[in-house]
């Protein structure tokens, strides 16, 4: 796709390795209860190409903080969806998130790529968010429980009280 002059095409890619079969990682990405456990939101969809999906709060309100459409769904290898705020136009169209699950022996490489980010601030926000969520996903998949504290709530650059 050609870029318009002055239109940024910013992206962020995060790669992690998990001691898990691909089917377990796929389930963790697409099951509403699993995503609620490690992400603090339920990802709700039937995960068929063309279907809508919602990133719903787990506080019982049913509010979707992120919405999109499933672009590609190839269990347990690849999931692509659009990503945007409900009712908020995004310059250049919605962003796009691609999860690629590549098996290698008893492990998988999980790559998440978030494309079509509006500006550097959005890219930085995506980088911080994906690092936190993928760390929690890795812990959840490998141990059956998420990290004891939500990593996205940790202030940037903060040190533990014992290190000061």
UniProtKB/TrEMBL annotation:
Residues 21-142 form the Activator of Hsp90 ATPase homologue 1/2-like C-terminal domain. Residues 143-164 are annotated as: Disordered. CDD domains: SRPBCC_CalC_Aha1-like_GntR-HTH (cd08893). InterPro entries: ASHA1/2-like_C, START-like_dom_sf. Belongs to the AHA1 family. This is SRPBCC family protein.
């Amino acid at each position: 796709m050609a870029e318009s002059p002055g239109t940024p095409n910013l992206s962020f890619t995060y790669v992690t390795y998990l001691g898990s079969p691909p089917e377990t990682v796929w389930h963790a990405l697409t099951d509403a209860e699993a995503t609620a456990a490690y992400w603090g939101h339920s990802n709700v969809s039937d995960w068929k190409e063309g279907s809508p999906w919602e990133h719903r709060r787990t506080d019982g309100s049913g509010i979707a903080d992120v919405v999109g459409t499933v672009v590609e769904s190839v269990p347990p290898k690849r999931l692509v969806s659009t990503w945007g705020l409900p009712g908020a136009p995004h310059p250049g169209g919605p962003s796009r998130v691609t999860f690629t699950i590549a098996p290698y022996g008893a492990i998988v490489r999980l790559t998440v790529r978030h494309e079509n980010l509006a500006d550097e601030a959005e890219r930085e926000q995506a980088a911080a968010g994906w690092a936190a969520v993928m760390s929690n996903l890795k812990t959840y998949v490998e141990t059956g429980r998420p990290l004891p504290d939500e990593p996205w709530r940790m202030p940037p650059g903060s040190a533990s009280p014992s290190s000061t």
